Amino acid sequence: MAQLLVLSSAPGGSAVLPALELLSHRVRQIPAEPAQLVNAPSADVVFVDARVDLVGAKSLCKILTTTGMEAPLVLVVTEGGLTAVSTDWGVDDVVLVGAGPAEIDARIRLAMGRRSAEQVSSRISTSGITIDESSYSAKVHGKPLDLTYKEFQLLHFFATHPSRVFTREQLLSEVWGYDYFGGTRTVDVHVRRLRAKLGDLEQLIGTVRNVGYRFNVYEDDQPPVPATPA
Length: 230
Description:
By secondary structure, this protein is an alpha/beta fold.
């Protein structure tokens, strides 16, 4: 059973998808207005009513996607409205208003499955570190790291190229870009800051003398526990 949220400005709270009433999912319907989204209930799938107001529905979809909503968006349209829908709407799927319960139930399952797969694939977990590419954030043993954007990019690059040794020049090219005119000293500065923020896991970024740096990966995916001072 899924939690479904329907956004619609239809007068009288009329059913946007009549077939939903034949399914066992929990359905909440609120006005399709940006102000209503502030306290909107959580949902596994969000349906946006685009049967009449295509322009308003498109604007609402863009607001939902830019504010980082995690639930998949399914657009409810008439057959004539299909010609107006494109990738820039940011929706995950479309469904015709006259769709039957079996089709709607299948689309709900598929939308939830795809979103779950995307969330898993956007995360990298290795040696005590978890990196979330979609939110540009990282955690050490579940605790958030306070990283700058460039520090995150550097950590992400290391983690996605484990055990490979990179010179400072290569790191400048890959992380800072070819148009960066600063010297290789900036790599050392960022590595030092990143190690400091990693704390006990600072050894994950190893130094290869006279060459550069590499990201160390441990066989059991856990870094060694630092020895306790006697």
